Amino acid sequence: MDGPHHSTATRDDVRHGRAAARPAADGAGGAPGDGHSSTTTIEVNGVPHTLAVDNRRVLLDLLREDLGLTGAKKGCDQGQCGACTVLVDGRRVNSCLLPAVALDGSAVTTVEGLADGDEGTDGDGLHPLQRAFLDRDAFQCGYCTPGQICSALGAIGEAAAGHPSHVTDPGAPPGRPVPLTRDEIRERLSGNLCRCGAYPHIVEAVEDVLP
Amino acid sequence: MKPFAYVRAGSLQEAADAFTARPGARYLAGGTNLMDLMKLGVEQPEALIDVSRLPLDTVEELPDGSLRVGATVRNSDLAAHPVVRDRYPALSRALLAGASGQLRNVATTGGNLLQRTRCPYFQDVTKPCNKRSPGSGCGALEGVHRDHAVLGHSEHCVATHPSDMAVALAALDARVELYGPGGARTVPAARFHRLPGDHPERDTEILPGELVTGVVLPALTAGLPSAYRKARDRASYAFALASTAAVLEVTDGAVSHAGIAFGGVAHRPWRARRAEEALLGATPTRAAFEEAVDLELSAARPLRDNAYKVDLVRNVAVDVLAGLASRTPDRV
């Protein structure tokens, strides 16, 4: 990863056995030497950020409060509603439950990182799934939408990688892509609540972007 | 949330040493349950010892045909693993019946085993709870307990264990590998979780400073079917009201092995030993399954508002066993 590096080990360092146990705390930013904050480098939407992070900070608060990325929403703040869903190293997660210090060296994609701004081919620069949510009227208040979109992108990737769901036929051959039927989409997005009840249109929007 | 130190462990020994230095610490893997409990004030660790990057993230087939699952293998990866799907479908199905896609991507094998009850009295620090605060009483005993235990509970605690995965591991005779200041040891999965008795604050047999390093699934006869079925308040993303994991072997028209565990009805996955013994040598008919499960459930002591669970787990279990019998090849 390009960008600022600090003494804290990256994920690759650890996988290759270069990491040593150490208090990641350095006191920077907090009360000096209090041991309650840690220097952490996280790449967000392609941009590396190195921050002195209070050890209590969860990824969601780091994104919203420290980086000003307010796309990921705080709904329940306890992993039940999915409004905070982002992608970490390509996998969808509840950012409200992840201590940011534990993500040192990770790459995060939020809803702000999906649109490429390229107005060339389809004209609006939005990610195809964002376009589909607009076309299908797949939201009402919009509060859950960033989480729905990030979760759907993660789910599409998981199905393509052959990950089964609770409604996948147990006899389906392992390792093959799982076709995303409506039942599959509904099951795989069950961790994203929509109080407006836009579920039928959300399923249609996801169907629109399936390969 | 109270401030805490953060330590990233580079090895198991370093993790154990860090715990010895800070006995008020908690190990952090995926953290999906721990962070929630810290936000609620139920957990107030002085330090988090991050074990998520230890090299415990692989699934390996061992020479004797067993399968070793590292403690930090994510629930979603374990459920999708080709060998798990092929040989231990009850485990894959149980994992997929739990939580959400986002949570399964983060939650680990070890963390799933060590997750705490979702009893609302345990999660609310303003309420009495002997598990959270020994001696304070049990709010659920005479309170809201529709979701609580019908087997093996005590006057001190009527909570259930929330894991689906652990129910499958109990039925499949898995073993849990532990490492701690006292060294390494293994415990049968079916005996890893405890009944509450006089000490509901102890969920499992794990000792202070020990951590789960892996789970070993024994070699199963090829083609031996196993299954997991879960009854819950909605079709997805809800904890079990009652569930059953089972594996069945039939030889010469008679049951030659049965592993049966109930979920959602006790403080631990409830291994149905009496039902298993009753089935050994029996012809695998629905009537035989009903008789065996009823024998097991003769020990049930439902609370004021959860007697429905006895019927529910009975029907789920009989259906799972009858379904397995219809698919089990008779080993003549």
UniProtKB/TrEMBL annotation, chain A:
Molecular function terms, GO-annotated: 2 iron, 2 sulfur cluster binding; metal ion binding; oxidoreductase activity, acting on the aldehyde or oxo group of donors
Biological or metabolic pathway of the protein: Alkaloid degradation; nicotine degradation
Start and end residues of each 2Fe-2S ferredoxin-type domain: 38-114
Coiled coil: none
InterPro entries hit by this protein: 2Fe-2S-bd, 2Fe-2S-bd_dom_sf, 2Fe-2S_ferredoxin-like_sf, 2Fe-2S_ferredoxin-type, 2Fe2S_fd_BS, Aldehyde_Oxdr_Iron-Sulfur, Beta-grasp_dom_sf
UniProt-listed Pfam families: Fer2 (PF00111), Fer2_2 (PF01799)
Name of the protein in its database record: Oxidoreductase
Species of the source: Streptomyces minutiscleroticus
UniProtKB/TrEMBL annotation, chain B:
Keyword Ribonucleoprotein annotated: no
Domain of life: Bacteria
Keywords: Oxidoreductase
Ranges that cross the membrane: none
Oxidoreductase in keyword set: yes
Pfam family for this entry, one: CO_deh_flav_C
Molecular function, one GO term: oxidoreductase activity
InterPro entries tied to this protein: CO_DH_flav_C, CO_DH_flav_C_dom_sf, Diverse_Substr_Oxidored, FAD-bd_PCMH, FAD-bd_PCMH-like_sf, FAD-bd_PCMH_sub1, FAD-bd_PCMH_sub2, Mopterin_DH_FAD-bd
Domain FAD-binding PCMH-type: 1-222
SMART domains the UniProt entry points to: CO_deh_flav_C
PANTHER family the record matches: OXIDOREDUCTASE, XANTHINE DEHYDROGENASE SUBUNIT C-RELATED
Protein name: FAD-binding molybdopterin dehydrogenase
Lineage: Bacteria, Bacillati, Actinomycetota, Actinomycetes, Kitasatosporales
